[in-house]
């Protein structure tokens, strides 16, 4: 996926002139500037469905740079029976605006559901259509992310309570069982051991819950490739020893603004889930880093939007997220595994929020991607890995 995009253009400026014969300056500069500032994918298709203009969000949507898009027609990206072609035909026939909701755009490189498309004629260019796409799945994912942050906050209050109310009496129970063990019969000793084992299990659970409690997080520039490498080595020497873990890094990626231990904890949970999901034979996990210019997120309670251009992805070729848990994936105690606690992704959601990032999941059979978007360090931020990275160590 990385490397498909050209270096991002400065926002608010018209698209760079394509190297092909597509006419430069086709749109009045102010129109292009307005379109390129839109957060929605927006494009102009001529009467033969060739791309005459695509804004930054459209490049991201199709994962193709504008320069490459100008050499393509929409039919090169989507099958001819896509409802989108019907919409374009309707706009041209009626000479007015047409919208279509809940479109599925499916092709070898594109998998979007719940997309809303708006088409409108462009009088300056006969037969041309201005097309905007609204990615429903993205809106739903953001919604889910915000819900999951709420869920994680609920869990953090519970964690503090559990740690306080359960841990102390539990160690008393365990100690008592240990004392009893010395003076009881063989059959009763087994019961004492059972009490100790169960007490240990509850303690483990409470310790995991404790990670939800709100502690101050120190943020610093972090070399994400070093964190990924550490996670990869831990995974390969333990729970993923039988699997392939492939690295697909953008070596020019600058440090991320975060916390190394938290990043490792997030990634370990994601890689562990991936390892548990894939087929033990032929299972593949891909770790990817990339720079994507367009990701911005609103800061709750302010009009500011933070830029989250650094992406870290964990992808697997397992069966995909079960439908039953898709809506509540990031909530605590949601699991489909025997013996699973359902705490991994709830913790991940909380930790990603702690370091000011965004997590999204895109899953279908054979391809599940968890994508974390992170911020760059503020200019002048000191700390670990302040210099650009030279790739994975
Ligand atoms: N990569 C994945 N592929 C398929 N399903 C997944 C994947 N990651 C998570 N899931 C689904 O999401 C559920 C919740 O994951 P989560 O990590 O929160 O809990 P868990 O793995 O079941 O238990 P725990 O992490 O607490 O041991 C899982 O039970 C599984 O059904
Ligand atoms: Mg898990």
Compact description:
The chain has 393 residues and is of the alpha+beta class. It is built from 11 helices and 14 strands. The chain has 3 domains: 31-135, Beta-Lactamase, CATH 3.30.450; 140-212, Helix Hairpins (Orthogonal Bundle); 220-374, Histidine kinase-like ATPase, C-terminal domain (Heat Shock Protein 90).
Describe the structure.
The protein is built from eleven helices and 14 strands. It is of the alpha+beta class and 393 residues long. The protein folds into three domains: 31-135, Beta-Lactamase, CATH 3.30.450; 140-212, Orthogonal Bundle (Helix Hairpins), CATH 1.10.287; 220-374, Heat Shock Protein 90 (2-Layer Sandwich). It has a five-stranded antiparallel beta sheet. Strands 7-9-12-14-13 form a five-stranded mixed beta sheet. The longest helix is centred in the middle third of the chain and has 47 residues, at 136-182. The chain is elongated and about 95 Å long. The two termini are 22 Å apart.
CATH topology of the largest domain: Heat Shock Protein 90
Q: Which term fits the overall shape?
A: elongated
The main pleated sheet reads as: 5 strands, antiparallel
Residue stretches low in confidence (pLDDT < 50, at least 5 long) are 1-25, 384-393
User: First CA to last CA: what distance?
Assistant: 22 Å
How many beta-strand runs?
14
Class by SSE composition: alpha+beta
CATH C-level name of the largest domain:
Alpha Beta
**What CATH architecture label of the largest domain applies?**
2-Layer Sandwich
Order of strands, main sheet, comes to: 2-1-5-4-3
- What is the strand content? 15-25%
Rounded mean pLDDT is 81
What do we call the CATH homologous superfamily of the largest domain? Histidine kinase-like ATPase, C-terminal domain
**Count of the domains:** 3
């Amino acid at each position: 996926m990385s490397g498909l995009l050209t270096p991002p253009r400065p926002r608010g400026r018209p698209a760079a002139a394509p190297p092909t014969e597509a006419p430069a300056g086709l749109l009045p500069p102010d129109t292009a500037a307005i379109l390129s500032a839109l957060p929605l994918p927006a494009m102009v298709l001529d009467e033969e469905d060739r791309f005459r203009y695509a804004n930054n969000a459209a490049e991201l949507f199709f994962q193709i740079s504008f320069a490459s898009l100008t050499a393509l027609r929409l039919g090169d990206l989507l099958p001819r029976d896509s409802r989108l072609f019907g919409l374009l035909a309707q706009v041209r026939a009626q000479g007015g605006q047409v919208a279509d909701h809940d479109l599925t755009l499916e092709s070898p490189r594109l998998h979007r559901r719940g997309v809303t498309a708006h088409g409108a004629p462009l009088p300056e260019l006969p037969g041309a259509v201005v097309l905007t796409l609204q990615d429903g799945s993205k809106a739903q994912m953001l919604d889910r992310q915000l819900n999951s942050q709420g869920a994680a906050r609920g869990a953090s209050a519970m964690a503090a309570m559990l740690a306080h109310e359960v841990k102390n009496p539990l160690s008393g129970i365990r100690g008592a069982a240990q004392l009893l063990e010395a003076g009881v019969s063989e059959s009763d000793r087994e019961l004492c051991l059972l009490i100790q084992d169960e007490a240990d299990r509850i303690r483990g659970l409470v310790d995991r819950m404790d990670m939800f409690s709100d502690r101050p997080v120190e943020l610093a520039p972090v070399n994400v490739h070093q964190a990924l490498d550490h996670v990869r080595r831990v995974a390969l020497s333990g729970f993923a020893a039988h699997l392939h873990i492939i690295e697909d890094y953008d070596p020019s990626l600058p440090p991320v603004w975060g916390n190394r231990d938290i990043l490792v904890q997030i990634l370990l949970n994601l890689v562990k889930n991936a390892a548990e999901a894939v087929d033990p034979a032929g299972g593949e996990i891909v770790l990817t880093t990339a720079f994507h210019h367009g990701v911005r997120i609103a800061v709750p309670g302010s009009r500011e939007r933070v830029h989250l251009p650094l992406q870290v992805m964990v992808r697997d070729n397992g069966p995909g997220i079960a439908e039953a848990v898709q809506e509540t994936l990031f909530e605590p105690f949601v699991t489909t595994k025997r013996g699973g606690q359902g705490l991994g992704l709830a913790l991940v959601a909380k930790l990603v929020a702690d370091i000011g990032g965004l997590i999204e999941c895109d899953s279908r059979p054979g391809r599940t991607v968890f994508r974390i978007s992170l911020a760059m360090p503020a200019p002048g931020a000191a700390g670990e890995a302040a210099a650009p990275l030279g790739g994975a160590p």
